User: What shape does this take?
Amino acid sequence: MRSRLAAYAGLALVASIALSGCGSDSDDTATDGSGTGVSCDWQQSGQAAKDVDPPADHATESGEVHAVIATSVGDIGATLDADAAPCTVSSFVSLADQHYFDDTSCHRLTTAGILVLQCGDPTGSGSGGPGYAFDDELDALPQPDSDGTIAYPAGTLAMANAGPDTNGSQFFIVYGDSRLPPAYTVFGTVDDAGLTLVKKVAAAGTDNANGPGDGHPTTAVDISAVTVG
Assistant: This one.
């Protein structure tokens, strides 16, 4: 199912496929000594764009996790915040370790209203995912302003979705301060060098396939690998 991440003021951005399920009930802790004690629920959802196994039943990551997204325009360094989003980071790390992101392209760029580059769909269609879904992790987000939005600062790394609790593999990089509803799990930041690269891609524009300032980036951003640690 093709889904869309509704943006403020009517602008739309391709989101992840329909998926759901990551929880953090404090009474549901790991009993085998593995993981962080945060329970993650990966619900089957659709056909996987690539053959991958679901992550462990409990979050495997905590604290800061460093990653590098190697792309055709250069390396984008990222710091993942597993304390704020343990299940999201554990899923991202699992997919990276299974080479899910290898040889994929960032399929959507927006240059008006909201300023983001969206990646993580092996099909490049905006509808591909890993075959499982997990819940939003929004507790660390601030309360919205009177207009129902919050600031997503430049450098933010967040999950795209198709509605509440429908996270999969698609994520977006905010390259310019943007306002959105507090509905998108923030799971890290990209470094200054990576942000500069994305801004250069944005400056080259989009093919406007989805409307003015919304489409495939004119400068292709092809991911060769994501390495963690």
User: Anything to note?
Assistant: The chain has one domain: 13-24+63-142+149-228. Helices lie at 86-97, 192-203. Confidence is low (pLDDT under 50) at residues 1-33.
